[in-house]
Design a protein that fits this description.
This protein is 44% helix and 13% strand. The protein is globular and about 70 Å long. A hairpin with a 5-residue loop joins strand 8 and strand 9. It is built from 22 helices and 12 strands. It has 4 domains: 81 residues, no CATH class; 209 residues, Rossmann fold (3-Layer(aba) Sandwich); 84 residues, Ubiquitin-like (UB roll); 88 residues, de novo design (two linked rop proteins). Helix 6 runs parallel beside helix 10 and helix 20 runs antiparallel to helix 22. The structure holds iron/sulfur cluster. Iron/sulfur cluster binds next to helix 19 and helix 21. The site of iron/sulfur cluster has 14 residues, from helix 19 and helix 21.
């Protein structure tokens, strides 16, 4: 049979792969999750007769791709076989909102024609032909977009700072140094939507007056590096990168720098030092990178996910973006949903959705009939939120008020079988290993905290150790130089706040 096989980027339904969609001549998609080798023959026989409609199906798929994507509904999907396997995917996907992952399940990561046919690079063309650079900055400012790398600093403000400099050499850095345990949002976006991130970077360059860009991607992400490298070449062939982009007077080029995998290099100043060939040590700020960054020049450092939102904002307008989310947290957030959850995977949700909705409606609830105990949000920099408070909305400020933080987007569901002290020890052992050692509170303080947690987990601690742990945690938080040290105590502080009795039970030998 004359069949076209198309591979697409990540759909996010990690526990349902391998996933095969068959598109028939009426553009009806039949979806087969968890496909087993022995089922392939049956699927082919069911759909395909020799010499049948393959060419027509292929053409129709390309012609109607807009219809698929603009409404982003799955109404035209027939779920077959109609059993539990597919129904799960239906709910998993329908509660999400796709901006960074727009085109999931359809776009082939490196098909530039398809991306363009889908509306790709329209935002760049619009920016270059209809907007002055300061208008682009204004649009991003008004959209309310906040940095998705962890801190939630307004993206437009950073753009404004770099644009304000009258220096001629400026840089845009895409921070793809994702290193939190369990997080893979940036990797998935880079691997599956390389053109979207590149487009966001070029627009950032135009808006701020930068002509050079650097992708900082950790070397442990070889597929992401490979796809970005190929995507950059394809863009250059089409004059979407390089001299006089798309016939305009704006020139911009991008190179790739592979990071060696130090977690601290996700911090802007350490990342810049690493590109300059130095050891990844965070530096005292100010000066901020926006004023004196790479090679001492104004540098905009934006996270992968932040840049992947830009084309949507330019295409649809800041108002439409503003309409999604809460008062101070706009747009969507990508999370790696993991832990004791029935349907884990990679999800993109509108800000303002509650943690309970994510767990129940998208994740299908806690696995194995266990009870929800807490959610650890934001990886080693974040904190835990107990089940009783999981009606909290996904919102930068709401999480901060609870002692947790959005972080880059790890979301680990914990059940009543999980020990919160163990969980805190796990994350702290990670940050202890990843501390660069520059400042004493982080280098020594985290080590001493870990010693106490080790004693607690092996039944050798006394009650005073709990107070000592809390005191140390507060001091490390206050006195460390960079974000790694300042946020490392969060898992300990939040578990102490909400689950202190578990620490006491450890001392009393009750667990
Ligand atoms: Fe290094 Fe930790 Fe100090 Fe950051 S806080 S500079 S990681 S020692």
């Amino acid at each position: 049979i004359d069949v076209t096989i198309k591979s697409v980027g990540c759909v996010g339904v990690c526990n349902k792969v391998p996933l095969i969609d068959v598109v028939d001549e009426n553009s009806v998609i039949t979806r087969y999750p968890n496909v087993k080798p022995e089922e392939i023959k049956e699927i082919l026989h069911h759909h395909f007769k020799p010499g049948s409609f393959f060419k027509r199906v292929k053409n129709k798929l390309f012609n109607e791709i807009d219809t698929y994507h603009t409404d982003q509904t799955w109404d035209n999907v027939i779920w077959k076989p109609e059993n539990e396997r597919t129904g799960v995917i239906n709910t998993f996907l329908s509660e999400q909102k796709h901006i960074a992952t727009e085109g999931y399940g359809y776009l082939a990561p490196l098909n530039l024609d398809e991306y363009i046919g889908f509306g790709g690079f329209e935002a760049l063309k619009k920016s270059l032909s209809e907007y002055e650079p300061n208008q682009v900055v204004q649009t991003i400012l008004e959209s309310g977009l906040r940095g998705r790398g962890g801190g939630g600093f307004p993206t437009g403000k950073k753009w404004e700072l770099v644009a304000a400099s009258d220096q001629t050499d400026k840089y845009i850095i895409c921070n793809g140094d994702e290193g939190d345990p369990g997080a893979f949002m940036d990797r998935m976006i880079l691997e599956s939507y390389p053109f979207r991130v590149i487009e966001g970077m070029i627009i950032a360059g135009y808006a701020t007056g930068a002509n050079k860009g650097v992708f900082y991607i950790r070397a442990e992400y070889p597929l992401a590096v490979k796809r970005i490298r190929t995507a950059l070449l394809l863009c250059k062939e089409r004059n979407l990168l390089g001299e006089n982009i798309n016939g305009s007077s704006f020139s911009f080029d991008i190179e790739i720098f592979e990071g060696a995998g130090a977690f601290v290099c996700g911090e802007e100043t350490a990342l810049i030092g690493s590109i300059e060939g130095e050891r990844g040590f965070p530096k005292q700020r100010p000066p901020y990178p926006a004023v004196a960054g790479l090679n001492g020049k104004p540098t905009l450092v934006n996270n992968v996910e932040s840049l992947s939102q830009i084309s949507f904002i330019i295409n649809k307008g800041q108002q439409k973006y503003q309409n999604i989310g809460t008062q101070n947290s706009k747009g969507t957030k990508v999370f790696a949903l993991a832990g004791k959850i029935r349907n884990g995977g990679l999800i993109e949700v509108p800000m303002g959705i509650t943690l309970n909705q994510i767990i129940e409606d998208i994740g299908g609830g806690v696995e194995g009939g266990q009870k929800l105990k807490a959610v650890q949000i934001g990886g080693p920099s974040g904190g835990c939120i107990p089940a009783s408070l999981c009606d909290v909305k996904v919102d930068f400020d709401a999480f901060n008020q609870m002692g947790a933080m959005m972080g880059s987007g790890g979301l680990v569901v914990l059940s009543d079988n999980d020990c919160m002290v163990d969980m805190a020890r796990y994350f702290l052992s990670f940050t202890c290993e990843e501390s660069c050692g520059k400042c004493t509170f982080c280098r020594v303080g985290i080590r001493r905290m870990l010693d106490i947690l080790d004693r607690l987990c092996t039944g050798k601690a006394v009650m005073e150790d709990i107070d000592k742990l809390e005191e140390l945690a507060n001091n490390v938080k206050k006195s460390s130089l960079c974000g790694l040290g300042k946020t490392a105590p969060n898992p300990v502080l939040t578990t102490l706040k909400y689950f202190r009795h578990e620490y006491e039970e450890h001392v009393n030998g009750l667990c």
